[in-house]
Amino acid sequence: MMDSRLSLLRSESKTQRPLKGIFPVIFPVSRALRILDKEPTTAEQYDRLGRNFLHLAINEKDTESVLFLIQVRVDVNSRAKDGEEATPLHLAVKIGDDFIVRNLTLAGAEVDAVDKTGQTALHCAAERDLAEITRILLQNGWKPDLLDEGNGY
Fold it and tell me: What is the spatial distance between Cα 104 and Cα 124, in angstroms, rounded to a whole number?
């Protein structure tokens, strides 16, 4: 009998599609937390391009994986180790996903964090004319008097 909490990626058929997302195996959060207790850096590993699992999930608009990573307490302020040094919040704004932005802010993402160019997530939202994301960031502690250091406004 297969454990109902464990669902493995299976071959595609007419009636069954493979699971989507970064994680090929879905398992209970409690099991993930036990793994993270033993190996705390597991979820924070970076690839050769300087991205971790959270960065990849956001870039892929993989909401389920983002929520899973937030639930297992991944660092929602981890910076990409690339030329931009963007936070997950910056990445979520850049892809225009207000649901991910809201969940990152609720999970404790630093709304005022700046990237390598000196821009906050709100600056990125304003540049892209993203009204809903701008509203979310303003409601969640952004300091309206913070300047865009890179562009001087």
Answer: 16
Q: Which amino acid is at 73?
A: R
pTM for the full model?
Answer: 0.72
11, 23, 25, 149 from 18: Cα distances, Å: 6, 11, 11, 45
* Residues contacting 69, CB < 8 A, separation 6+: 43, 53, 54, 57
Per-residue pLDDT of the chain (153 residues; tens, 9 = 90+): 333 322 222 223 333 333 445 444 455 566 666 777 777 777 788 888 989 999 999 999 999 989 989 988 899 999 999 888 999 999 999 999 999 999 999 999 999 999 999 999 999 999 999 999 999 999 987 666 655 555 554
